[in-house]
């Protein structure tokens, strides 16, 4: 019988002494932070970010018919699964003319999906869709859409992605279009 190997403990690290330890010399010791007493009669200031009035639908003149709709990859895929005509269902939803916009990043994302999503690629290459060129680094479509919506408040974002919807809801004044219950 050989020696039994002793297993090393996971994430073992050397213990460090605190800077407040009494073994450390007085000049090297960390000083305890001194709290300032607040004056109850002093005026309290707080900074609230001011949003421009164009972000609110009542005043946003950019957001009107014909609506510019930024389409995401999964929105096209879900519309195929739900057997919806993309252009017609958008017009039925908004009761107005819609201009479907697709960025280069979304187009690249659909092309990367391969042969399985060739129907989605054919829909995305439809001449009724307006192509928007991208000038940023990388091809991550979600970041591209969020950046474009932040800069220009004239778009409606069409997506089914929960994470992207959560990010866009943080930007005030940007409407979201999504597919639920095959509508």
TrEMBL record:
Residues 67-166 form the PIN domain. This is rRNA-processing protein FCF1 homolog. Belongs to the UTP23/FCF1 family. FCF1 subfamily. It is found in: Nucleus, Nucleolus. Keywords: Nucleus, Ribosome biogenesis, rRNA processing. One of its GO terms (cellular component) is small-subunit processome. It comes from the Eukaryota. Gene3D superfamilies: 5'-nuclease. GO terms for biological process: ribosomal small subunit biogenesis; rRNA processing.
